[in-house]
Specification:
The protein is α+β, with helices and mostly antiparallel strands. Helices cover 37% and strands 26% of the residues.
């Protein structure tokens, strides 16, 4: 009756969703006060092995360390290893496993050499094992439930961040008689660190850019949002690309503390004069296709966020011929690997653009993505990918 009532009490507590601490209180009361087990230590695994319950041991056991020899024990048995304090103070080990994974170990000891009867720990072993298994499974279920709630919360936060990040990108891109643009963005995770923007300064001039924040995920996305905000504020005060890049570099150095950096291609285009000025700050060189030749736009400076002040900052200005195409991309495109451990080459990028040069910017980006999917086959993408294609009509 004692054992049955104890088991029913534990089951009822589990059904009523009592806390782990309350379950452990019931467990200790049953073993210490009802079954008269003299001393006990219970180890549970939660990222690491920790002692979640102990009684009957003196203060020298306040900081118990898990002894690896316990992992070799698969069934209830007497302690046979001799290293460490546990093997000197306890006689019996009750392991709790789920399939091949150890969840907990209970160490019991109450043998009194002055008494001739069987110890309580040995006498009640089958019941102790049953009660321990019931409780440990309940505790593990609580961990899993808490983990699932945390994952759901994180997922919700990521979905919110994803929605907010989409709002940072321009809602529409130019598609006029003078200028056509299209962008394609594939974040490696739900949020990413690639960024593109197009901002009109006046009726004939716009600034556009493509950037890549080092790393992935939320940290990269947060720095990217800082970049976007800074650029839009700076453009209200100056349209000088050199001043803008210097100020952005200062911002990144102050905020990222040399732990993050940004590659940036930023350009200013005048649809009336057809002049294109740009700075390439350590970014993959965009390709300008015009008059049957391809030019790499590589003039500029180092990555932003590495050093302050910047050195050797250079701006280049070009007169863009009619019907030229500019294809800019982040390194996720060229870092994509195929089954042979090869990466996408610049020549393959050039050929894809030239092959589709009479198509729209949107079609060119989709053709590039289609080629990339064919190239990588079943291999996964390894980074965020952004593409920005411009036609100077």
């Amino acid at each position: 009756d004692l054992k049955l009532n104890s088991l029913l009490e534990m089951t009822k507590a589990i059904n009523n969703n009592l806390s782990t601490a309350q379950l452990l209180d019931i467990y200790q009361d049953v073993l210490e006060n009802r079954l008269k087990v003299g001393k006990l230590v219970l180890f549970s695994h939660d990222q690491e092995w920790i002692c979640i319950l102990k009684y009957g041991v003196d203060s020298s056991y306040n900081h118990l360390e898990f002894e690896p020899e316990l992992l070799e024990i698969k069934e209830i048995e007497s302690i046979t290893f001799s290293k460490g304090n546990l093997s000197k103070r306890f006689e019996i080990v009750v392991p709790v496993y789920h399939k091949q994974t150890p969840l907990a170990f209970v160490l019991l000891g109450d043998i009194n050499e002055d008494k001739v009867e069987m110890s309580s720990a040995i006498k009640h072993l089958p019941f102790i094992q049953t009660l321990t298994n019931v409780m440990i499974v309940a505790i593990e279920n609580k961990k899993l439930y808490k983990s699932s709630i945390q994952k759901a919360t994180i997922q919700k936060e990521l979905e919110l961040a994803q929605g907010m990040q989409k709002m940072l990108f321009p809602s529409s891109l130019p598609n006029t008689e003078e200028l056509e643009m299209n962008a394609l963005y594939l974040p490696h995770q739900q949020v990413g660190g690639d960024y593109y923007d197009v901002i009109w300064i006046n009726e004939v001039e716009c600034v556009f850019c493509l950037a890549d924040v080092s790393g992935k995920g939320l940290a990269a996305a947060m720095l990217m949002s800082n970049l976007q905000a800074a650029l839009r504020v700076l453009l209200k005060y100056t349209q000088n690309l050199t001043e803008i890049v210097i100020d952005i570099n200062q911002l990144i150095c102050d905020n990222a503390k040399a732990e993050k950096f940004i590659s940036l291609f930023i350009a200013k285009y005048n649809t009336g004069t057809r002049k294109l000025s740009y700075i390439n700050a350590g970014h993959n060189s965009p390709l300008l296709f015009s008059n049957y030749q391809t030019i790499s736009l590589d003039k500029g400076c180092t990555l932003l966020g590495i050093m302050n002040p910047l050195i050797s900052l250079e701006t280049e200005t070009l007169l863009v011929p009619l019907n030229s195409i500019l294809f800019a991309y982040t390194d996720g495109l060229t870092d994509t690997v195929n089954n042979s451990d090869e990466t996408l080459s610049i020549e393959e990028i050039k050929n894809t653009v030239i092959k589709n040069k009479l198509s729209s910017c949107e079609f060119i980006n989709k053709a590039m993505l289609f080629y990339l999917e064919e190239f990588k086959a079943e291999m996964p993408f390894v980074d965020d990918i952004a593409m920005l294609t411009c036609k100077f009509k």
